[in-house]
Amino acid sequence: MTTPIEPPAPPAKTAPLRPGRKLGPISDGVGSVHRAWLEPLRSHYLDSGLTLSDLSVRVPLAKSKISELLRGTGLYPRWEITLSLATQLQMPSWPLYRLWRQAALEAQKSSDWVERSADKAAVTTSQTPPLDHRAFRALAENDYRLYAQVFLNDDQRDTAVANTFDILWLRWNEALASPDTRRYAWDTLRTTVMARTPHIDGWPEFGAAAFDTIALRQLTTETERIHQIEESLQLFKAMSRLPAQQLDVMVLRRLYGIHPETVSTLLGIPLAAVRSGERHAAHYLESVICPPPETEGNTA
Which of 182, 220, 223, 243 pairs with 161 at a CA distance of 20 to 30 A? Predict the structure, then answer.
């Protein structure tokens, strides 16, 4: 397994003050991919020191419309307007476009609408992420894909991982300024994966992974395979009830056998937290899957 790089030292950062009314929150109805590019756009705006009035002078859009765009209300924005704002806020356009396009299609915009919008504003595909971002991706991507494929099919897995690194590219300075870049990146991956994962009663559903386990592939008879699938489904249902960090530790440790030190690095948490999380999770799973037998004094 690969091990992500140590996080760079976070730079000092002071949020500028600005006059005028505070920007409202993102609308609850905004989809996960739309939110994925809108949040960094808002962060760049809030860090820029510019006001909505300043932007309305530089971008061919009324102040009220810019406010709507930054809150995710109103119609889904055309690419040329989004790009104009991103340019003023010094954001990389290529990862932004990929997320914008995906969110447009998920918002039921036609491919023709997307292409017409993109034709009016050139997309620079030759942009490359910062060197440390590229190094981080080269070391972490395979393990991120392993985690994602427990919850998603192959296409969704690849999309979720690609989206994660696009979001990190857009928010890389913010990631570097966080207490731990690795933790920031893992939280981004987890949020992206869980947004696409089916949930039942609020718990993530990953029973399909029971049909593609190492234990199952080692069995030869149909009876053995059916029994193993039943055991795996029971285990995964119980695992889905674990707290987020314990679930992530168990996916990496028990399903893939990744060393605790590597799990610590991937999640950006202390090694002691990995071992404690695995111990508490294992105790819970044993109590649910193999509860202790009742004693005579406890029988009805």
Answer: 243
Alpha-carbon distance of 85 to 96, in angstroms, equals 11
* Secondary element (H or E) of residue 200: strand 199-200
pTM score: 0.84
190, 207 Cβ separation under 8 angstroms: no
Between 151 and 223, the more confident residue is 151
Q: What's the pLDDT tens digit per position in 205-224?
A: 875 554 555 444 554 555 55
CA–CA gap between residue 40 and residue 172 (Å, rounded): 10
Pick from 79, 125, 127, 84: nearest CA to 104: 79
Q: What structural domains and CATH numbers belong to the chain?
A: 32-119 (1.10.260)
**Phi and psi of 203, rounded to 5°?**
-105, 140
- Concatenating the DSSP letter of every residue in 31-87 gives -HHHHHHHHHHHHHHHHH---HHHHHHHSSS-HHHHHHHHHT-SSPPPHHHHHHHHH
Average pLDDT estimate for 146-175: 94
Q: Using CA atoms, how far apart are residues 277 and 117, in angstroms rounded to an integer?
A: 48
Rounded alpha-carbon distances, angstroms, from residue 203 to 13, 160, 197: 37, 19, 10
Question: Mind listing the pLDDT tens digit for each residue in 78-127?
Answer: 999 999 999 999 999 999 999 999 999 999 999 999 988 887 777 776 78
- How far apart, in whole angstroms, are the C-alpha atoms of residue 264 and residue 260? 6
User: Token digits for 172?
Assistant: 């890389």
User: H or E stretch including 268?
Assistant: none
